[in-house]
Structures are given as structure tokens and as C-alpha cells.
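QA checklist item 7 of 12: single-chain prediction sanity check.
[x] sequence parsed
[x] length recorded as 466
[x] structure emitted
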Amino acid sequence: MAKKEKTDLLSYIRNGRTLTQSEKLSLIVSLSIPSILAQISATVMFFIDYAMVGHLGEKATASVGLVESTTWLMGGLASAASLGFSVQVAHFIGANDFEAARRVLRQSLVCCLLWSIMLSLICVAVSPALPFWLGGTADIAHDATQYFMIVGLAGILFQMEGLAGSMLKCSGNMKIPSALNIMMCVLDVAFNYLFIYQFNMGVKGAALGTALAELITAVMMLYFLLWRSETLRLFNRKEQSAEKADYFRPTADVVSTAFKIGAPMGLQHLLMGSAQVVSTIIVAPLGTVAIAANSMAITVESLCYMPGYGIAEAATTLVGQAIGAGQRMLTRSFAYMSVTLGISVMTLMGMLMYVFAPELMAFMTPVEGIINEGVQALRIEAWAEPMFAATIVCNGIFIGAGDTLKPAIMSLSSMWGVRLTLAYFLAPRYGLRGVWTAMAIDLTFRGLIFLMRLFRGRWINTKIRE
């Protein structure tokens, strides 16, 4: 019954029907909850996964933490490519042009596969030297290299799983991608336990477990998209004869639009990821304990911001479809309600993180020094969670509108001009606390400027078809 109600409300957007405030909130919540649950479960499972590595000792933890920021960088580049196409699909679905949406999907499969192969080859090529570039020492370099190489090769699976999940979400189907992501997290923990402890493969086993979980999830995600999706499936369609197979061949209009949407995000991920790498380089001289504490605290903090990303995904879908339908007022309403909900939820999560920081860090590692450093970092960051929520949800709104260039410039300016500049000066004097203080100031500033852009409304002016 709830599924039918959600489908009806989504059809109201496409058909220009008026939604009440309660119906809008119902849509935001119904689309957010599966994604939030998936995000939280992913974080919890990664939390457990990291704890497995953490109990192997400081060196094992540091070897994974050293290359973690670079792994996120490559993942961000893959996500940017996926969103360049999926946002177009959301707009076409909002305009009731399902054949055009499927045409974009076909081309996205080819383009994203080629892109992911290139990224994986880069990861393999740089993996032997990467730990030393990041300031790591010889005692952790071998494990760091093996971990990054295996995760990099699995990037092809990450790309295709992410593309399929993004397409399903933009069509309004949050349930299947969320359920499969939860399944992937459970598989990841199970396989990691098997490879790390039963086969005694250590850090290498953690990477292999993640890769195997990604493989199974990618296959299932593509199956539900290509064979089972009501609006986007490419196979077993009655009207399939009208859609030519050569639609798999990339065309200039689709690829150029994907580039306009995805390129600023890709550049943002590249420079933001590079900034994370620079941040790792700033932390590295502080010692193995600081590297491990920094990485583990980031993992713990993700428990707070995962609900924000779930709400942001719902906002991307709703804003994208409302824009495709040409509904300006509805677009604004979805945007304002989503960001209010995101700030409320993440403020509560920040308060909980502040209170339970010692217990959360103790679960990750038995090393007292890492726990103490991590607790201090988390309690500094807790104050920035409300504005971090604003950044996350506003970014999801702007993505749904296809407005990615100016937000990317804003994020990069804040990251490089505020966070890294402050961290460079604060780290030598205050250690890891200085790095996290710089991070908290950056996130607060970025949230404020994103809210200013949201309420000024310029992100929507050229996107709605009059």
C-alpha cells in the first residue's frame, strides 16, 4: 500500500498535480528512509570491517588509513560519471519521456564501463609508489600497496553497481538499491572475516572481501535495473522493437550533457580528493597513532552524516523529476523541506556522537592512544554537523537541478582556502586536534554559503522549462 501511494505521488509530479505539504513530506521521508537505512548499515558494517583491521594492530590500521583518502578520490570520480547520466534520466522521467530516459541509460553503460576501466588501470599503475607519495614509511607500504591495488581493480564493479543504483534511485526506486547495499555490507563483513581471520590474509584479505561483495552486488543491481525496473528495464519490454540497439552507441547530445553535469563534479572530487590526500600528508608526520586515529575518527563520524546523504539522494530524485516536469514552486518546496529535515537529523546525530565518542572509538581499537586522539577529534567535529548537513543536502538539491559548476567551485574554495590552510598552520602546534578544528571551521563555512545559494534561488533559474 505504501509503495502504491509513493508511486501515485511521484506520478503527481510528472502530471502537474498539486501536492499538499503533508504529501511532499511523505514523499521526502518515504524516499529518504530506505536510503538512510542503507547508508547507516553501510557505515556500521564498514565500522565493523575497520574494527577487524584495527585489531590487527597499529601498522595494519595505518596502512589502510594511509590510502583511504585516495580510494575515496577514485570512488568520487566514478560517482561523478554515474550522476552525469542519471540526472538526465530523472529529468526525462519527470517529463514523461521514458524512451529518452532508456536511451540515456544505454549510453551510460558503455561510457561508464570505459571510464571505470581507465580508473582501475591508473590505480594499478600508481599503487607501488602511492604509500611513499603520501608520506608513509616502509613498514606499512607493502600492505597499503596491496590494499589499494585490489580495491582499485574492484573499481569497475563499484562503477557499475553505483551507476545501476543511481539510475534506480532517480526513477524513484529507493527500496531495491538500499536493500542491495545493505546486503553488500553484510557480505563485506562476512567475507572479510573469512579472508582476514580464517585464511590469515590480513589487510589483503580485507580488500578481497570488499571486492567479492562488490561483485555480487553489482550483478544483482544490474539485473534489477535492466530486467526488472518498470520504467527503465532494457530487456523483456513489449515496446522494445521501437528502441533501436544502436542507442548503446554514445551520441554527442547525451555525452555532452553528461559532461556538463559530471565534469564539474569530477573536478570537484579530483581536487577535493587531492585535498584529502594533502590532509593525509599533513597528518602523516604526526605519527602512526595520529594516522590511525584520524582514519578511525573519520569512519566513526560517517555514522553522523550518512542520514544526510540519504536525504540528499531523495532530494536529488524529487528535484530532478520536478524540474523535468517544469514545476518551479514544487522544486523550491522539496528543496527547502529536504534541507530542514537534513539539518534536524544530523544535529541530533552530532549530539549523540559527542556523548558516545569514547565508546565508539573503543569499539574500533583497544589502543589507548588512538582512542584518546579520536575522541578529541570527534567532539570537535560534532559542533559542525548541522552545517555539514546543509552542505550535503544542498549539494544533492543542486545535483538534481543539474547545477554542479558553481557549487563545485564553492566547495573547492572552502576546502583549499579554509581547511587546508588552517590545518597547515594548526597541525604543528596542536596536532590532530588542529587538523580537525580546521575541518570543523571549513564545514561550517561551506554550509553557510550553500544555504545562501539555496535561498537566493539562482540554481533553479535556468533549469526550469517555462
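[x] summary fact logged: The radius of gyration is 22 Å.
[ ] second reviewer sign-off
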